[in-house]
Structure formats: C-alpha cells, structure tokens
C-alpha cells in the first residue's frame, strides 16, 4: 500500500512569532502536514527549543529557525536576505507575531511598537519576500488579525499615538491595518497565483499581552483564561488557510472558524487601504517621503 504524500510535502512555510501561542501551534500544524518550516524567532534559545519541540511532536525534521527582532526594520531586512540565501522558494508566509501594550513603547526605528510590530513588520517582511512568493506560485499569505479590527480606526493624524497613547486603540488600529493590508495586497496580487487572506483566531490562551497588560487586563485575564480557546484551536483556521485545497485561489477575505466573514465597514474602503499602503511604504523605508 502506498501512502499519499502529506499535504504540504515540499512546500516551504515561514511562520513569524512561532515561539509561542498561535504561531507555535500553526507551525506545529504545518510541520505535521509535512511542510519545510522556517520559524522566525527573536530569541535564539527559545527558537532552538521550539524547533526541537516541533520536531519531536511531529516527527518532521525539516524545521529551522530564522532569527529576527521584527520590531526592527534592519532586522527584518537581514532576515529576508538570510531566507533568500537559504531558499529559492517560499510557498506560505504566515504573519502572526504581534502583541498588546498598555503603555507606549518606541522601537529602535523611533516608531510606536504596536504599529511597528503588528502592522509594519507584516507589511515590510511581505513586501521583501513578494518576488520569492510570486516565483513559487501557487503561494499563500496568511495574516493573523483579530476581532479587534471591528472597532479599529486608522488615526492618520496621529498614527503613532504621540499625543495620548491608548493601548486598546493602538491595538485595534493595528488589527484593522492587517485587514486593510490584506485587501489591498490581494488587489495588487490579482492574477499572480499568490493569495492573501486574514484570520481572527478567536480568543486564545497564549502569552498575549503578558509583558505590559495594564491593571484591568491583568485582573480579568486570569478569570477569562479557562474560557479561552487552546492555541491548537486558535491555529486551526490559519493552518487551514495555509494548506487546504478547499481555499485554493481564494483571496482577499477575512476568516474566523474556517468561515469567510464580513470585516468592519472601514476595512472595505479602497482609498483608506491605498493611503495606509503609501504611508506604510514611507515608514518602512520602501519609498521616499512625498
Ligand atoms: N491570543 C488571542 O486571544 C488573540 C486574539 C486575536 C488575535 N491574536 C493575534 O495572534 C497573534 C499571535 O498572538 P498570541 O496570542 O499567540 O501571542 P503570544 O503567545 O504572545 O505570541 C506572540 C509571538 O510573537 C513573538 N514576538 C513578539 N515580539 C516580537 C518581536 N519584536 N520580534 C519577533 N517576534 C516577536 C513572540 O516571541 P517571544 O516568544 O520571543 O515572546 C511570540 O512568538 C498576534 O498577532 C495577535 O494580535 C491573538
């Protein structure tokens, strides 16, 4: 009896934020399907430990780590270069690394951390790897957003919350940005064989927000944890979007629980999406300021 090849055999998949939570469960799910995996991690020891853990759990030895602090644009650029040196194909890119901060933090590039990590890192890494994805078509991009996109607004007058920082507003903005980025990129990739979708993973028991939760979340999170989804449940739709033949060719959609859903009204505004794209290009150093 010959066994069918695993669904993702020979497919190279990169997952960011793969050392914890939804990213780690997504990487594990793709490894189990036989993919060649590249895990992006900022901490070498955590990265190596995760590789060993995923290899042991799945029996798939083809798991490697790519080191990058995604809050630093120089580090994102180095990681993209390093990936290119080792790989001439990339079939799946899962942008997932992100977080919530109750107080304002500034990156090495002088940018507000939520915007820089949750949105600009998705934007920059994807753009730097786009030619590789195009050359590997059919290829897929999966952006992990959040239900928080629904209440998000893009504060063009103060994108970095320099006037008055509000953690929740910064987070909601970044997650709406994930959706706007997904839809605009889908328009730009039409006909290329590269699809891009975004996903709300549900409310999931992870390390999310742990570094700087603020008093309210610190109080409520332990109470809510028993009711949260497991990382494996949170990773179900991301893995499915990255691998299922059922969504072959599907692009520019927002998913939750394996179902295409409507995202916020604002997310469907193409002018808003184009404006965010232009500003993001400037802030990520992909275009000279106008
Ligand atoms: N948990 C939820 O309920 C929920 C709900 C909706 C959406 N989401 C989204 O799901 C995604 C993953 O979150 P999670 O819940 O799995 O959180 P998590 O357990 O805190 O995992 C976050 C991951 O991102 C990595 N990361 C953080 N800062 C980084 C940096 N500067 N450079 C590189 N990697 C960095 C972390 O690495 P370390 O291990 O080094 O810290 C970790 O692997 C986020 O985009 C979040 O917005 C989560």
How would you describe what is shown here?
The protein has 290 residues and is an alpha/beta fold. Helices cover 42% and strands 13% of the residues. Helix 4 (113-135) links the parallel strand 4 and strand 5. Helix 1 runs parallel beside helix 2 (44-58) and helix 3 (73-86) packs parallel to helix 4. The longest helix has 23 residues, at 113-135. Residues 17-23, 42-43, 46, 69-71, 96-99, 117, 144, 146, 201, 203-204, 206-208 line the site of NADP nicotinamide-adenine-dinucleotide phosphate.
The value of Rg in angstroms is 18 Å
* Total of helices: 8
| Succession of helices and strands | EHEHEHEHEHEHHEEH
Low-confidence runs: none
How can the largest sheet be summarized?
Answer: 8 strands, mixed
Roughly what percent helix?
Answer: 40-55%
Portion in strands: 5-15%
Distance between the termini: 63 Å
Ligand set: NADP nicotinamide-adenine-dinucleotide phosphate
* Class derived from helix and strand content: alpha/beta
Shape: globular
Average pLDDT over all residues:
97
Q: List the strand order in the largest sheet.
A: 3-2-1-4-5-6-7-8
The total strand number stands at 8
Name the descriptors.
single chain, 290 residues, alpha/beta, eight-stranded mixed beta sheet, 8 helices, 42% helix, 13% strand, binds NADP nicotinamide-adenine-dinucleotide phosphate
């Amino acid at each position: 009896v010959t066994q069918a090849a695993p669904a993702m055999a020979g497919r190279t998949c990169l997952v960011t934020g793969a050392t914890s939570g939804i990213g780690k469960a997504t990487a594990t799910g793709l490894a189990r399907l036989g993919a060649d995996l590249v895990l992006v991690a900022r901490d070498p020891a955590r990265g190596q430990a995760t590789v060993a853990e995923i290899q042991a759990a799945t029996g798939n030895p083809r798991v490697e780590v790519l080191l990058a602090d995604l809050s630093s644009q120089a580090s994102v650029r180095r990681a993209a270069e390093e990936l290119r040196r080792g790989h001439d194909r990339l079939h799946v890119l899962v942008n997932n690394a992100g977080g919530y901060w109750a107080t304002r933090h500034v990156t090495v590039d002088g940018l507000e951390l939520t915007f820089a990590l949750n949105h600009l890192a998705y934007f920059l890494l994807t753009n730097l790897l786009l030619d590789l994805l195009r050359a590997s078509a059919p290829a897929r991009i999966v952006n992990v957003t959040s239900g928080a996109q629904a209440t998000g607004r893009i504060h063009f007058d103060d994108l970095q919350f320099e006037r008055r920082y509000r953690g929740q507003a910064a987070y909601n903005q970044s997650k709406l940005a994930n959706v706007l980025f997904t839809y605009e990129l889908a328009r730009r990739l039409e006909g290329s064989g590269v699809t891009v979708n975004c996903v709300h993973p549900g409310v999931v028991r992870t390390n999310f927000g742990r570094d700087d939760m603020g008093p309210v979340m610190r109080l409520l999170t332990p109470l809510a944890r028993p009711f949260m989804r497991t990382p494996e449940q949170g990773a179900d739709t991301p893995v499915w979007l990255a691998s299922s033949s059922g969504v072959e060719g599907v692009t520019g959609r927002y998913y939750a629980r394996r179902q295409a859903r409507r995202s916020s009204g604002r997310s469907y505004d193409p002018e808003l999406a184009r404006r965010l794209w232009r500003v993001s290009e400037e802030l990520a150093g992909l275009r000279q300021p106008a």
